[in-house]
Design goal:
- By secondary structure, the chain is an alpha/beta fold.
- It is 33% helix and 25% strand.
- The strands form 3 sheets. The chain has a 6-stranded antiparallel sheet, sandwiched between helices. A 6-stranded parallel sheet has the order 11-10-9-12-13-14.
- β9, α5 and β10 form a beta-alpha-beta unit.
- α4 packs across α10.
- The longest helix is centred in the N-terminal third of the chain and has 15 residues.
């Protein structure tokens, strides 16, 4: 008889007791399922961009060292949570077993992408088969557990698995952009040439309409040109996202001193909070999608420059976010082609 589990997975927490699986230091990754869990045969991990960047730097680009670091995280914690960034990623796999009391539509054999973080997902890696550092994806042999509360998407049949995974990994960003941007808004996307940035630009342009003003800030001339070639914004420039004053001056220039109604930060490095805050007008909104964001730096930084802006810390979940993100690729053939080339 299967053991009874908590819908939020607290029965898996080893230490410290009393916390949920995400903040926990160690969770139980025994793959014998509880009555409300799903066992997944894992094919691919899509590591959070901030996390993979940190691991790659720590490993100095050495693939075997990257494998060693990842295996170490899982061995120590029972999950893949980067102790530096605190973030995880997501996975794709096939449903292997379903608990007797699990409530949902899943069937054994369904191919799914989990839309909850690896930082809370019980995981066992038997073997790392391939590391693709250019797209933050790692093919493995292994298993994982999905809790009753864990959200997921059944993989669509009209696109390759790895393409769907690359989009679903950042699904919260374009869905939030779709929710937040209104007709006529001035929108700045920092990190606009990256994966989540490109999707946000598409949604921002679509929602802001002909009276809107969408500004793309790329991290390099190459990534900026990538967005420009797709025609996703009204203005484009490359800048160091940690250089707050340079970005502020440029946004002042492009908005005739008005600044932005909405700033979306998709950058995967630290210390980009102030560029986002300074680019935003008073009573405007800053959406920090990046997991490299420091709440402390954002809060105290805004206070320090006297900015009355609303700030949203990037919740990777937004109702219907998987459908919104996948629909972008269905609507935009050029964007789909680019994602196919870069991430699949």
């Amino acid at each position: 008889m299967q053991k009874k589990g908590c819908p939020y997975g607290t029965h898996r927490v080893i230490s410290p007791k009393g916390v949920l699986p995400q903040p926990a230091e160690k969770i139980d990754n025994n793959m014998e399922i509880y009555d409300n869990e799903v066992l997944i045969n894992v094919h691919t991990l899509n590591i959070d961009s901030a996390s993979f960047t940190q691991i790659e730097r720590q490993a100095e680009g050495n693939i075997e060292e990257i494998k060693k670091i990842m295996l170490g995280h899982v061995e120590k914690q029972g999950k893949h949570k980067n102790p530096v960034t605190g973030s995880g990623g997501m996975l794709i796999g096939t449903v292997e077993e379903i608990g007797d009391n699990y409530k949902g539509d899943l069937k054994v054999g369904d191919k799914i992408a989990t839309l909850v973080s690896l930082s809370l997902t019980p995981l066992v890696i038997d073997e790392i088969l391939a590391v693709r550092p250019d797209i933050d994806q790692v093919d493995i042999k292994g298993h994982a557990i999905l809790f009753q509360s864990g959200i997921y998407a059944v993989l669509p049949e009209d696109m390759p698995e790895t393409l769907a995974l690359s989009v679903l990994d950042v699904a919260g960003a374009p869905a939030q952009a779709a929710k937040l941007v209104k007709p006529g808004d001035t929108v700045v996307v920092i990190g606009g040439g990256g994966k989540s940035g490109l999707l946000c630009l598409y949604e921002a342009k679509k929602r802001a309409g002909i009276n809107g003003n969408v500004i793309c800030i790329g991290g390099s001339p190459k990534s900026t040109k990538r967005a420009e070639d797709l025609g996703l914004a009204d203005h484009y420039f490359a800048a160091d996202a940690t250089d707050a004053i340079t970005i502020y001056n440029k946004i002042m220039e492009l908005t005739d001193g008005e600044l932005a109604d909405i700033v979306i930060n998709c950058v995967n490095i630290e210390n980009t909070e102030m560029a986002s805050i300074l680019a935003c007008k008073d009573d405007g909104l800053v959406y920090f999608f990046s997991m490299a964001t420091s709440f402390t730096k954002a809060a105290l930084g805004a206070e320090g420059v006297g900015k009355d802006v609303n700030m949203i810390i990037g919740n990777g979940y937004c109702k219907g976010h998987a459908n919104v993100a996948l629909q972008v690729l269905r609507e935009s053939e050029p964007l789909r082609k680019l994602f196919q080339e870069m991430y699949a």
